[in-house]
Specification:
The structure holds two protein chains of two kinds.
Chain A: H1 2-6, H2 10-27, E1 38-40, H3 50-75, E2 80-81, H4 92-95, H5 105-128, H6 133-153, E3 157-158, E4 164-165, H7 168-184, H8 187-203, H9 207-215, E5 222-225, H10 238-241, E6 251-252, E7 308-312, H11 313-326, H12 330-344, H13 354-368, H14 375-384, H15 418-423
Antiparallel strand pairs in A: 2-6, 3-4, 5-7
Chain B: H1 3-35, E1 39-47, E2 58-61, E3 66-69, E4 75-81, E5 84-91, E6 98-104, E7 109-111, E8 114-116, E9 126-127, E10 135-136, E11 145-148, H2 149-152, H3 160-164, E12 171-175, E13 184-188, E14 201-204, E15 207-209, E16 243-249, H4 252-255, E17 266-271, E18 277-291, E19 353-365, E20 369-381, E21 388-403, E22 406-421, H5 431-436, H6 448-451, E23 458-477, E24 480-499, E25 510-533, E26 537-560, E27 575-598, E28 602-613, E29 623-632, E30 646-658, E31 668-674, E32 677-684, E33 693-706, E34 711-729, E35 741-763, E36 768-784, E37 791-792, E38 797-799, E39 807-809, E40 812-813, E41 824-825, E42 833-836, E43 841-850, E44 856-865, E45 868-871, H7 872-878, H8 888-897, H9 904-910, E46 921-923, E47 926-937, H10 940-945, E48 950-958, E49 961-964, E50 987-988, E51 996-1005
Parallel strand pairs in B: 1-7, 1-8, 14-17, 45-50
Antiparallel strand pairs in B: 1-4, 2-3, 2-5, 5-6, 9-10, 11-16, 12-13, 14-15, 16-17, 18-19, 18-51, 19-20, 20-21, 21-22, 22-23, 23-24, 24-25, 25-26, 26-27, 27-28, 28-29, 29-30, 30-33, 31-32, 33-34, 34-35, 35-36, 36-43, 37-38, 38-39, 39-42, 40-41, 43-44, 44-47, 45-46, 47-48, 47-49, 48-51
The chains are: A mainly alpha, B mainly beta.
């Protein structure tokens, strides 16, 4: 009361009223803000969002393919490092053939994102009600490819924060999604699903199933993962962009098995399926093993918008050839291989026994699927299945860092990443 | 400038006109009516010891609301004083207040001069920061650092960052590169957040301005380092000569009433106001040079296999970039210099980068209207060849008293900053990286003609920055006042980044043009009511509210693949892309505070602020920040002998916060394109309960002046605990969202001590010798991770329980001194914990000599120690088998004594066979002389020759001496990374270190 008694003048009362009004005004401030740019989840349950969900699943798969394929190409020596170790480069560990769980976080994350987003996106579409079957089929197809990428390249499976499981979980899930894509899709989409299913069945050792699927895919069929030169680095063809000299010259064909085999300025009659360009430049920087390396970039992909094949008829023929080898028909296999070589305009391969036919097949798969992110998986399963036949000496670790072979070791699959190990309570280490 | 800025300027101009009319009317009409019966008082304020005039002294008639500031020549005049007897007071920071009784006669002018004594501790000086309104220092229970620019700053600082460097205990200011216009990281008492910005809030004349750096000039796609890789600071939009004083508050105990966003501290800048009297014009001219100290090993340490210079004439002590550094080019008669290569022909042809500045201000006014208007222009070359900054700053501060109980204060500044840069940092298209990496750069060629084309990249930035604020203070009664402020900070930035057609590493050319707009609208109300309580207790109640709305907008056009040479715009490009970002954040809060004054000796303050913020989660609600503090002026006790000096004990506890980012609360999907069609990708997990991290701080200390006011001590202990700390919780990748999500899970602690000291060793009317020093010791620790995994925040900086925040740890060598191959330990091994990333010990030293004839010499130095950081250029170079200058000693041993003579540490650091980036972590201790200046007045007769009443000249050198830990063999511990100066973990990229500055200036007062 004493306080009030001191504040007596009308001026003060007016001031108090003013103060109260201002306080009321401030109290009424609305701090609710919706900023543009990012999409809240609730919007994804609208029908209009479904096409963008499917495109997103595809893009996620493309980004994963970009990293896994590039690093796999380095470790299997489809490409040789020429200096860059940072952005778009090949780390010293990968140069040595080591896929350590500390260094492959991006590969793991992108691959898991592609897989998860495929399943989650499909669930969202199903919950909302698919606008059309083609859209849903495409979602299944990209998701299937995401699982194939994991199955062919990663040592063990981890699904949705659970514990580690067998690698076969990825194959099974891939096949289930390709089944859906085949039943819901049509045209190239359905054909791609059949071809992809064939490759997964082959990987998992189901050769009869693989043969059956492969048989339905013509030689000239190609289904690509699209890449774009104009949307930013994530959607560029990473293998191409890493050696496009703008600014990276991160890898070369020097010191690879293709150096003397491929079509190039040094060998105009070489195999045109594995082309590269000879320059008088050297790579970005010196390489641990070999000093400064001549920069002879691949030219299979003309620019960073070049698509990367995911499934193609020529691969199907090699699946058929390999199935024949598994069945003991090495002559039949060579027939398949040489048919492809003839079509490509190169000399037929020679073999006089099963082992040599396996050698020819392993070489030919390297040529047909060159820089398509498949070689590491091939190495893994041939090693797993203890198949006969040899790889080229330049594809194998020499145990030293001398010029000509930087591969001190050669890990054949990606482990669980350090990030998954650290965060997933059900995982105890890089192998689960 | 965009239309909106033109609109703002038009509005400003219109406002000037409107206010001008009002001012004129008031100036002519209001005083005219009164002048007939009233008198006036005039006089001069001088320093009691030196006799020098003292400006900016608040001279007022007690209890009347009449007063003014003394001018630079010490003169003051108070007009329109009704006849009668008054108590006239003179108060100024750093001086003891003085008072006298005077009589004013109608129609007459009374003369009264003050001779005021400098005082180490002014308990009755007014401070503003951290309180709801102004308060006397004796009332404030927390520490406040003040810098009186006019009294304490001698040499002309390059910018505000340099002005503040090494002046305030517990404040560290580090500039991260030599890039023109680059800002500086400011930390007050270390880090209080591991994920949010630790840059303090900035208020200029009560207007909140952007405290984060401006945007980096970089294309929106491709590698994010195609830039100079440093950014400008809004703080440097202020002309240091316009600043009257700066107040710095360093912890949550003091910043509570600023609420959310204030936990990292607050810097308040107050610019000059006009004083009553005729216009006083002040002109300033500055000419100077900047040039680098060496930042690599001396060439004499090179191994036998190394040539004395690179093919372009580069030397190891400049990491081979000196052929492009202003001030260090090779001599023209050096045979290594090729045709058209810039070189030093002698005769001062290559002394350094030219700096020049011209400034003019005028202040004055009548009783009801005062003004301070200033303009400055500077044109500064940087040490790198393309670097230049041209800056124009205009300011108008107007004080208007339309009636006795109402004061209007309108302060406005406009800055036009035009910057040109050389590509630097970690950038394969940059000059610095490609010289540091010698012949193993991206060209495999270190010759001048190979590297010089990197200069063809054009990186230009224009920043238009308008800060305007209007404050109305209405005081209907002596014990009741209302202050209403509205402030608007608008910065528009235009970035252009062109690698032209034919550019050496992008032959078809790349162009990005970005327009940014950053604005902050602040609306403030504070009411203050003083009243009495029983038992003689005085009470000062303050209450009010504040709303801060910040907007950030960006539109970018990008093009590449140009058809041919020429000066392109984006639509010439073969490929074009567009980008846009818009973010708005609203924070609104209410606060109340009461100061209980018991006998003018004991003070207890309690306060509370409650905030809402648009970035809080939907389920979070409001956040309350309480505070309580006490101040005890023990020297006012009867038992205190006056000869002991004066002393205040203080204790404070309070909280402040830091909000999450605009999108952290919401589960979102990124709308990305894929081949021209829309595509959604998982982006942010979201957290509906996310709120601010809250820093609580306990602060204890004292301030005192002793030994006849010759010695001032200021001691503070602080303990800060940030609870609900926002940590980046790594998500389980197999659950699809791969980026981390912020969550309020952690806790971190900062404890420390701060000591400030000023001592006048000699003080007489001819000589003065003052020394000052400051010491701050800070320890930080992450005390809880909240059961989430430890996480990295870059540069080998980790947030891990039980360690400093952040701690630098990396794989390390177990047997560093052994002459054997290294045994490598994992980073999780205790032996591999290097230490904190922020300095734990900061010490400042300074002294000022006053000599006869008004000559003043001053010097300041700063030591920072205890921190570790990664030398990124070394890491990147060595792993590419570059012969790194930092390894010259090791290479020398290797070549002259054999490999067996190398220690394990040397092998790990310099032999590619063992090399990991981890081995580039180095101690970041340093000492620098921040400033040495000499100032002398010119004879009045000389000044009079140009019509001036006073003239002074000053010679200054800044940062021209440096000591660094010998283990940091290259670069400089202040060098920063690629994202600009404000980083959570300090680490280096390929920047040229900040240079030294040498300046001559002349000031003329008319």
């Amino acid at each position: 009361m004493k306080i009030i008694s001191m504040v007596t003048s009308h001026v003060t009362r007016r001031g108090a009223l003013l103060s109260a009004a201002l306080l009321g005004l401030l109290a009424a401030c609305d701090t609710t803000v919706v900023n543009p740019g990012r999409v809240q989840e609730v919007f994804l349950f609208e029908t209009e969002a479904q096409e963008a969900i499917v495109s997103g699943i595809g893009r996620a798969a493309a980004e994963a393919q970009n990293y896994v394929g590039y690093t796999g190409a380095a470790v299997t020596r489809e490409i040789h490092p020429s200096g860059s170790t940072g952005s778009f480069g090949i780390t010293v560990e990968w140069q040595n053939g080591e896929l350590d769980y500390e260094t492959i976080g991006t590969h793991w994350n992108l691959s898991q994102r592609a897989r998860w987003w495929g399943d989650d996106g499909i669930a969202k579409i199903m919950e909302t009600g698919a606008e059309n079957q083609a859209t849903l089929a495409e979602a299944y197809l990209w998701t299937g490819y995401a699982y194939r990428l994991l199955g062919e390249n990663f040592c063990v499976s981890v699904i949705d924060g659970e514990g580690a499981g067998a690698r076969s979980v990825y194959y099974e899930r891939a096949i289930a999604r390709f089944d859906q894509a085949v039943s819901l899709g049509s045209g190239d989409m359905a054909m791609a699903a059949v071809a992809a299913r064939a490759s997964v069945k082959a990987f998992s050792g189901d050769w009869s199933g693989a043969m059956a699927d492969a048989a339905g895919v013509p030689d000239n069929f190609v289904f690509d993962m699209p890449y774009f030169a104009t949307e930013g680095n994530a959607t560029r063809n990473r293998i191409q962009f890493a050696s496009q000299a703008e600014p990276y010259k991160a890898h070369t064909q020097r010191y690879t098995k293709y150096e003397d085999y491929s079509m190039s300025e040094n060998n105009p009659d070489g195999d045109p399926r594995v082309p590269y360009r000879v320059t008088d430049e050297t790579g970005d920087a010196a390489v641990q093993c070999c000093g400064q390396v001549p920069w002879w970039p691949q030219t299979k992909y003309a620019d960073s918008g070049s698509d990367i094949p995911l499934s193609k008829g020529t691969e199907m023929r090699l699946i058929e050839a390999e199935a024949m080898l598994v069945g003991g028909d090495w002559q039949g296999a060579m027939g398949k291989i040489n048919a492809l070589r003839m079509a490509a305009g190169v000399e037929p391969a020679m073999a006089t026994n099963t082992a040599e036919a396996w050698t020819a097949l392993k070489f030919e798969r390297g040529v047909v699927l060159w820089l398509e992110g498949r070689r590491l998986g091939d190495f893994f399963r041939w090693n797993r299945d203890n198949t006969p036949g040899d790889l080229h000496s330049l594809e194998q670790p020499s145990g030293s860092q001398n010029e000509g072979s930087h591969l001190v070791q050669q890990d054949l699959c990606y482990p669980i990443s350090r990030g998954e190990v650290d965060t997933n309570p059900n995982i105890n280490g890089p192998t689960g | 400038m965009t239309n909106r800025l033109f609109d703002a300027l038009r509005s400003f101009a219109g406002g000037v006109g409107a206010v001008g009319v009002v001012i004129l009317a008031a100036a002519l009409a209001v005083p005219a009516a009164a002048q007939a019966q009233d008198g006036a008082v005039t006089g001069t304020v001088t320093d009691e010891t030196s006799g020098r005039p003292v400006g900016s002294v608040q001279v007022y008639l007690d209890g009347t609301g009449l007063g003014t500031l003394s001018r630079d020549n010490g003169r003051f005049v108070i007009l329109n004083v009704p006849a009668g007897e008054y108590t006239i007071r003179a108060e100024r920071i750093g001086y003891a207040s003085a008072e006298a009784t005077i009589t004013i006669n109608a129609g007459a002018t009374t003369q009264h001069d003050f001779a005021i004594a400098s005082q180490a501790l002014g308990l009755d000086e007014i401070v503003v920061t951290g309180t709801a309104g102004a308060a006397r220092r004796r009332e404030v229970g927390n520490s406040i650092s003040q810098l009186d620019v006019e009294q304490e700053v001698v040499g002309p600082p390059v910018n505000v960052d340099a002005l503040l460097q090494a002046r305030v205990p517990g404040m560290s200011i580090t500039q991260s590169s030599a890039s023109s216009g680059g800002g500086a990281m400011i930390r007050l008492r270390g880090n209080v957040s591991m994920t949010q910005s630790n840059q303090p809030l900035i208020y200029i004349d009560g207007v909140r301005v952007r405290s984060e750096g401006f945007a980096k000039n970089v294309p929106p796609i491709g590698y994010s380092g195609r830039s100079n890789n440093d950014v400008s600071s809004p703080l440097n939009s202020i002309n240091p000569q316009d600043i009257e004083r700066v107040e710095v508050i360093k912890g949550a105990a003091a910043t509570t009433l600023y609420g959310t966003e204030a936990s990292a501290g607050v810097i308040q800048i107050f610019t000059k106001r006009g004083s009553v009297g005729d216009a006083t014009w002040t002109g300033q001219l500055e000419q100077g040079l900047s040039r680098n100290l060496t930042f690599g090993p001396d060439p004499s340490l090179r191994p036998p296999s190394e040539n004395p210079t690179s093919l372009s004439g580069g030397r190891s002590d400049f990491l081979f970039i000196n052929p492009w550094l202003r001030g260090h080019k090779p001599m023209c008669d050096d045979p290594i210099v090729v045709q058209d290569q810039p070189c030093d022909s002698g005769l001062f042809s290559d002394m350094g980068a030219h700096q020049q500045k011209y400034a003019l201000n005028v202040g004055g006014g009548a009783e009801n209207v005062r003004y301070f208007v200033s303009a400055s222009y500077e044109n500064d070359d940087g040490v790198l060849p393309n670097d230049n900054e041209k800056k124009v700053i205009l300011r108008g501060n107007f004080t208007f008293n339309p009636m006795e109980s109402l004061q209007l204060q309108w302060n406005t500044s406009y800055t036009n900053d035009q910057l040109e840069h050389t590509a630097g940092g970690n950038n394969a298209h940059g000059m610095t990286l490609n010289t540091f990496r010698r012949d193993r750069n991206y060209l495999n060629d270190e010759s001048f003609n190979a590297i010089n084309p990197f200069l063809n990249q054009e990186i230009t930035t224009q920043i238009d920055h308008l800060i305007t604020g209007l404050t109305a203070t209405y005081s209907p009664l002596a014990n009741f006042s209302n202050r209403f402020s509205i402030g608007y900070d608008l910065a528009q930035q235009d970035n252009r980044n062109l690698r032209p057609f034919g550019f050496i590493r992008a032959p078809t050319g790349i162009l990005a043009t970005s327009r940014y707009e950053f604005n902050t609208l602040t609306v403030d109300y504070v009411g203050s009511l003083d009243f009495s309580l029983p038992m003689g207790i005085r009470s000062a109640l303050s209450f009010g509210g504040q709303s801060v709305t910040t907007r950030s907008e960006r539109t970018t056009a990008y093009g590449d693949n140009f058809p041919g040479p020429g000066d392109p715009d984006v639509d010439n490009a073969g490929n074009t892309l567009g980008f846009e970002d818009r973010t708005r954040i609203v924070n609104a809060g209410l606060f109340a505070q009461n100061v209980f004054d018991i006998s003018n000796k004991y003070f207890i303050t309690v306060g509370l602020r409650v905030d809402g913020n648009s970035a809080f989660g939907a389920d979070f609600g409001l956040q309350a920040y309480p505070k309580v503090s006490g101040s005890y002026v023990i020297s006012d006790e009867d038992f205190w002998d006056e000869g002991w000096g004066s002393m205040k004990l203080r204790a404070a506890w309070g909280q402040a916060g830091r909000a999450p980012g605009a999108f952290d609360a919401v589960r979102t999907f990124a709308a990305a394109g894929w081949g021209g069609v829309p595509a959604f990708l998982p982006s942010n997990v979201g957290n509906a309960t996310i709120g601010p991290e809250t820093t609580s701080e306990l602060e204890l200390g004292f301030e005192g002046s002793f030994m006849d006011d010759r010695l001032a001590l200021d001691f503070t202990y602080f303990g800060q605990t940030t609870s609900d700390a926002l940590f980046s919780v790594r998500q389980i990748p197999s659950l699809g969202f791969t980026s981390s999500q912020l969550a309020n899970v952690g806790e971190l602690v900062n404890n420390g001590y701060e000591l400030g000291l000023n001592y006048s060793i000699i003080r007489n009317d001819t000589w003065t010798w003052d020394i000052n020093g400051s010491l701050s010791l800070t320890d930080s620790e992450v005390t809880s991770l909240g059961d989430v995994p430890e996480f990295s925040i870059g540069g080998f900086g980790w947030v891990a329980e039980g360690y400093p925040a952040p701690v630098i740890r990396s794989d390390c060598v177990a047997n560093p001194d052994e002459r054997a191959d290294p045994i490598i330990l994992d980073r999780t091994d205790e032996q591999c914990v290097h230490g904190p990333n922020q300095a734990t010990t900061i010490a400042g030293f300074g002294m000022t000599f006053g000599l006869p004839a008004g000559i003043v010499l001053t010097a300041r130095g700063e030591y920072q120690g205890g921190a570790f950081m990664t030398n990124g250029p070394q890491a990147a170079a060595t792993r590419r088998s570059v012969r790194w200058a930092g390894c010259f000693e090791a290479y020398n041993t290797w070549e002259t004594q054999g490999y067996a003579a190398l220690t394990a540490e040397e092998r790990a650091r310099c032999d590619l066979k063992f090399y990991q980036s981890d081995f580039a972590v180095q101690p970041a201790d340093f000492f620098k002389i921040r400033e040495v200046s000499a100032q002398a007045p010119l004879p009045d007769a000389w000044a009079n020759m140009v019509g001036a009443s006073r003239a002074t000249v000053t010679l200054s050198g800044r940062n021209f001496f440096r000591w660094v830990d010998p283990l940091m063999r290259t670069l400089d511990p202040e060098v920063g990374g690629n994202v600009g100066y404000n980083t959570r973990v300090r680490s280096m990229t390929e920047h040229v270190p900040p240079p030294a500055f040498y300046t001559f200036s002349m000031q003329l007062v008319f």
